[in-house]
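A student in our group prepared the protein record below, which I am reviewing. Thanks in advance; the entry in question is below.
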Amino acid sequence: MSTDLEAGMKAEEYKSGYVALIGRPNVGKSTLMNTLIGQKIAITSNKPQTTRNRIQTVYTDERGQIIFLDTPGVHKAKNRLGDYMVKVAEGTLKDVDLVLWLVEPSTHIGKGDQIILEKLKEIDKPVFLLINKLDTIPKAEVLPVMDTYRKLMDFAEIIPVSALKRYNMDDLLATIFKYLKPGPQYYDEDTVTDQPMRQIVAELIREKALYSLQEEIPHGIAVLIDSMKKRNNRIWDISATIVCEKESHKGIIIGKDGDMLKKIGSAARYEIEDQLDAKVNLELWVKVRSQWRDNEKLLRSFGYRKEDE
């Protein structure tokens, strides 16, 4: 028979906390988060500045619960949207128990990483340096990278990883739990994200547009879910609008005879059906909203709110 003392000890062993992922654009934060929780929530792309909002996901096992906050990549803001993204990333550092800083496996430390380094030195929280994309370099080159960064700051841990190939993921989780304090279970064990499904669907559509469109267009698009309804036969009817900044961009997004829009829609529908575990009827539209990234009213309507900064 278990005693109250034993029950108390077990409760004390359960750990929980908030962990931020920070780094330059395209360093692999979203891929790492998706890999750790075992489900795609944050969109990924080979183009920078993919994540725009702070995305919260939840990892739970018998050891405890980790709430991951994936932030927009820190970069030099060129418009109000960029300014919002940087403020979200910086503000997240104040709200967490531990920080994971992802960097490229290189001994060259660029200006972007230098800016992040200075901000990390200002916080009084454990910082893990994660050298990501380990699968892209020979193993002999890892130690020089670790030595380069070790001289810059007293990191709690330096861990080489490959989010794409799942290298060192179990060790990373174990080390995070080692640093977290005993705490409550904030979310049900089945919860993997606090993101509304409408937002996840919009982001999946934007991801497919990022993969398909030319370089000059992706940063200038947003996706709005106009309607999302479930029929009695479990089929979802979803109507969404891709917003761009120029008429010329609208033509490219639609493509000849609508081919590009069909390509984006087909790729997005496949992943949305996987998320909803149901058939999806997806309709896509394209509208022009000139300079929306500098229009505060439009930014708010697209879900970029000052409260999130």
